[in-house]
Amino acid sequence: IYGPGRLRLVRKVWSGEARATEGWTNRIHVEDCGGVLHHLMGVSEPAPLYLGSDDEPATTADVLTWMASELGKPTPDAGETTRLNKRCRNARLRQSGYSFTYPTFREGYLDIVRAFATEQRADS
Length: 124
What we know:
By secondary structure, the protein is mainly α.
């Protein structure tokens, strides 16, 4: 779960500490996380399980490379993938009628990354 104020990855990319791996990540913006829960409380016959993940599972490398580009920083060096790799599909959630405010990490992180970069450059 990511969103405003959750800047760990952004800080790591900015400082050059981030390591890009090919491990899959399944992300959801905090607003969509709450939106999913609210939506599911209104589903009349809910399925036994829904996966709360956005529309685009992505590798850590995908996310960090995009973030570095937005920040004007070098692409992070490759790191070792040490955890399980699983891509989650939100098809059942989508079929229930939920519509994401932030369908991928790009839309979700964009304002966060830009605000962070502006703040860092102002502090320099």
